[in-house]
Amino acid sequence: MRVSLLNGNSSSFFLRSIFGSGNSLALGSVWRPLKARNPAKAAGFLRCKSMSTDSPVVQVKEKIDLTEKEKMIFDRLLATIRHFDLSTQLRVAGGWVRDKLLGKECYDIDIALDDMLGSTFVDKVTQYLASTGEEAQGLAVIPSNPDQSKHLETARMRIYDTWIDFVNLRSEKYSENSRIPTQMDFGTAEEDAYRRDLTINSMFYNINTSSVEDLTGRGFEDLRSGKIVTPLAPKETFLDDPLRVLRAVRFGARFGFTLDEELKRAAASNDVKDALAAKISRERIGTEVDLMISGNEPVKAIAYIHELQLFWVVFSLPREHELTLPEECDRLCLAYMDAAWSLLQLIGSLSLADEQRRLSLYAALFFPFRTITYKDSKGKKIPIVNYVFRNSLKRKASDAETVVGVHSAVARLLSLIPFLESNVDRELNEDDMGSELVDIPASSKLRVLTGFLLREVKDFWRVALLIAVLAYPFPIGCSEDAMFKHYELDKRKEVFKAVENAILKLGLEKIWEVKPLVTGKDIMNVLQLKSGGPLVKEWQQKLLAWQLANPAGTADECLEWMRQTHLKRIKME
User: Fold this and answer.
1) Where in the numbering of this chain does the Poly A polymerase head domain appear (predicted)?
2) CA separation for the pair 96, 98 (Å, rounded)
3) Which pLDDT score is estimated for 94?
């Protein structure tokens, strides 16, 4: 991939700095203008200060307090062991132990067995339940699927309406060019702990002894000090399974923990970056990114990816095409996402649903790509945003289509914002009008244009508005004064609310659900046509414009307007 760079002044929507509310300042990244010999050029660029290395103080419990349901579940499993006189040690592994020690409830219970497969133990539980007159529920065996990063068979069952997964402890060896283990044996609890991704995820709760086992000797310590550390040497850990790099980023952001310095050096090394690109499926990378974007600290997660120099590994672009990107495009992407996240906090969580919030962050992150395209094998121009979603992250097609649609709507929305945010009636310029508006009264044209836009972007019009506000009336500028920065975001919030209220006042909420008053068959009858075609499509747009301009109009009135307009055209011709 050959990439050309634009300088900072050539992008009309260039975001020069992050204006953070209190939420933004807490993210741990500080954005400052680059110091350079050419001040004009430097004004357009950003420098990201490294994420804070000060570890948080975390309250960690000394022991795990079980809920009544957990006690009942574990008692039932121990009764199975006693019934068959087994020596099996039952250990709850990973995230459940971490979350319980942090005082959080967790319903994801994974149990590791030291001397048998999960399916074998589930059979034992089933037999025991039968001996007591009970019937096992939800039995399932999920086979191993290395291509989807699932290396062990997992047995599942429901106990007291809770899903429990059972797997065996294991030790693993990896090949050089794959994250699929070449050799996997029954392992000890200690071997299993050391093959985990992070020390905070390596602890066990031994059900037999009702105790927490910290077999790496680091789990408690790193949880208390808020550190993200690997049980073994980080480079060895990441080369064995490079997906662990992204998991480290995700957990670091989620809990507000600090990435270990040696871990950061290993993650940023060329060997690990190459391994991440070569050994990990794009589906798995996309899944991790989606969990970050949907999480509680999405900006912090992407900032870690940027800091570890993994941005272009994760959001890879087509290598065989020559692309022109804004200079320091990765920082610009992060800057837009940070600004969007900060603005979301000011606007309030109720403005957007979860799915809208998720895609709004993607739309902000990829906003610098919005005008960049490449040609596919058939010579068709494809937006780079589409490539990143479909190829780099392997996300669903609807995500790509929605974000591309939002970017397209932003460009048109920017021209409408001045009219929508003001309470003064102003006529649109002729350049803003399409052919479907020629016969529409000037006073109705704003409603018509806005209605057409909303009918295209549908439920995501507020997402488009959020992104447009970041570029209106100009990109966020540079300032060292925190209060001024906050004022700038407040002003953008005011614009968002003003435009939102104007759209609601125009009665355009859910306008995309309004059906056309006139059908294609009606149009063909008026025009005396035997079949449809471009002329029918043209009139469909004109009649929809009339309907938007006359929200109280009837089908008969719409058809009469069409007849009169059509007759005028014939006379003029």
Assistant:
1) 90-228
2) 6
3) 86
Strand partners, 381: 375
Picking from 162, 164, 159, 107, the residue whose alpha carbon sits closest to that of residue 134 is 159
CA 232 to CA 507: how far, in whole Å? 61
Hey, is 428 helix, strand or coil? coil
What are the two backbone dihedrals, phi and then psi, of residue 148, each rounded to the nearest 5 degrees?
Answer: -110, 25
One-character DSSP codes across 96-154: HHHHHHTT-----EEEEESSS-HHHHHHHHHHHHHHTT---EEEEEE--BGGGTB-S-E
Residue 398: what residue type? S
- List alpha helices for 315-383, DSSP H: 329-347, 354-365
Q: Which two tokens stand for residue 119?
A: 């399916």
Q: Higher pLDDT residue, 319 or 145?
A: 319
d(CA 522, CA 536): 10
Residue 456: CA atoms inside 13 Å, Cβ hemisphere, count? 18
Beta carbons within 10 angstroms of residue 252's beta carbon? 25
Q: How many helices (H) and strands (E) does the chain have?
A: 24, 17
Tally of CA atoms within 13 A in the half-sphere of 449 that contains its CB: 26
| Identity at 160, one-letter amino acid code | Y
Query: Each residue of 10-31: b (16+ CB within 10 Å) or e?
Result: ebebbbbbbbbbebbeebbbeb
Beta strands in 245-315 (DSSP E): 258-259
Contacts of 377 (CB under 8 A, 6+ apart): none
3, 323 in Cβ contact below 8 A?
A: yes
Q: What is the DSSP string of 477-531?
A: ---S-HHHHHHHHHHHHHHHHHHHHHHHHTT-TTGGGPPPSS-HHHHHHHHT-SS
**For residue range 304-361, what is the model confidence (pLDDT) as tens digits?**
999 999 999 999 999 888 888 887 889 989 999 999 999 999 998 678 999 999 999 9
